[in-house]
Structures are given as structure tokens and as C-alpha cells.
Amino acid sequence: MSLGTIRWIPQDSGRRGMALVLTSARLRMLILFISLFFTGLAVLFFEMGKAGSSMADKRRDSEETELVKAELYQLSRRVDGFESRLKDVAVREKQILVAGSGLNIDLSKLVPQDDGEPEFPGDDMFRYIDDIELKLLLMERLAEAELMVYDSLATFFVEQKERLARIPSIWPVDGIFVSSFGPRVDPFTGAVRMHKGIDLACARGTPIYAPADGEVAFVGWTGGWGLSVVIRHTDRISTRYAHCSAICTVVGNEVKRGDLIARVGSTGRSVAPHLHYEVLIDGVQVDPENYIIREGSDSAVF
Prior knowledge:
Number of domains: 3
Strand content: 25-35%
Largest sheet: 8 strands, antiparallel
Structural class: alpha+beta
Radius of gyration: 50 Å
CATH superfamily of the largest domain: Glucose Permease (Domain IIA)
Order of helices and strands: EEHHEEEEEEEEEEEEE
CATH topology of the largest domain: Glucose Permease (Domain IIA)
Number of helices: 2
């Protein structure tokens, strides 16, 4: 069924015109073609927009990934710095242990010995994160071991403090050094005899102080030593204080370094007020000067 005729008349009179008969079928085809054309344009613009959005998302994801990599890299550097600090602590601890007790423990072996610069994370960030977690786990182990060793060190140094407190390391009296340990001329006989202590001259009644912690083992008169005191500091170390004028303690008393135990006198075999001071190791007299701590180049070492 014809709906009409569309004529095309050229401006050039020398050319022939054209006539197009418009039918309902042709009209439907034209409408369909126009619909398909605009639908195709819409789909094209939609896909272009989707592609642009996808590219923007990828760009944003890429930027976020690079940011995460940078943060992981900084975290890795901080972990390595912490690891280095723990290694320094382990080295110092080893020095303390070696100096203090002869032990030789190197806890830095608990962490990887890698002094290189940390690598920037690549595409496999999961492996990179696993490496960081492993380092953290090893450092946690090291920190726990450090705490255990420091507990042991604390116990050790407490024991050492108690041991050192029982070594006679200070002058027992404020006096003048008049006679040393070793051979000397006896003032009573003129013969050379072994002097088994040191003599410190001072005024009668001068306080005598315990040079270390210990227990009073003897108080009384003993032949040439006159009125004397013996303090037992350890199972092996004892000290004797002879020629006293008065005793300020009793047998069985626990004394601390610096406690008053007696006063200087001239009892027994003595020509003037002074303190005869002895240090005994396993009952044998040794030079007390070897146990007295001094400052300077002539300091004693025990």
C-alpha cells in the first residue's frame, strides 16, 4: 500500500529527478534503521564511558597499590631498625655476661644476620608481608630471651652484691699506717719475725668499724693480741682486730660494713695504742692491703 511519493528534483535542469514511492513496509524499515542507529550510538557511548570509568578505577587502584607498597617499605625499615637495636642490646648483654660471670651467650643469633638495605616491595606483596611477619616473630623471640637473661643477670648481680659485701675492702679504722704485712724487727726482742697483719696507730678509744658484712665469731682476750674480735665474713674469709680497749659487740651478732665493733687500745703485747688488723683465708693470714679498695694507680683488686 502506497502512502505517498517523495520526489527529488535536482537544481541542474540537465539531470533527471528521482521519485521514491513511500510504502508502509519501507516506512517501518526506515524507523527500524533509525532506532538501531541511535541504539548503537547509545551502546557505543555507554561502553566508552564504562571503559573510561574502568581506566580511572585501575589508575586509582594502581595509586593505592603504590601507596600500600610505600607504607610497607617504611614498615620494613622500622622493623629493620628495631632489629638492629635488639642486636646492639644483645651485644652489650653479651659483654656484661662475659665480664660478670664468664658466660658466653650471643642472643643476636636468634634474628637473621642481614645488614643490607630492605628491598622495595614488588608485585608479590603477600610474600613481602610474610617476610615482615617472620622478622617480627623472631624479634619477639629475641625480646623474650632478653627478658629471661636480664632476670638471670639481676639474680646474678644481687648474689654478687651480697658476695662483695662480705669481702673486707675498707680501712677498719682512721689511723696512721705504721707497720705492713711481712717480715719485720720485733720491737720487744729485736729479732726478725713475720708480722701477720698491719698496724694502724691512732688514739686510744678510736672507733673500729667492720670492713665488711659478717658474723662475730670471737670476742675476748687472746695472749699477745690482748682484747680482740674475730669476724667470720664467709666460709673462707675472717678478720681479726687486736689490742682493743673495749668491745662493742658480742659473739653471734650479724654486722654490716661500717658497723662499730670495738675501740682502739694497747692491750696484750703492744707498746702504744694501735689496731693490729688481720685478714685470714681458710685460717691463714694474708696481706690485708690486697683487700682494701683504694682510688688511683695503687688501687687494690680482689
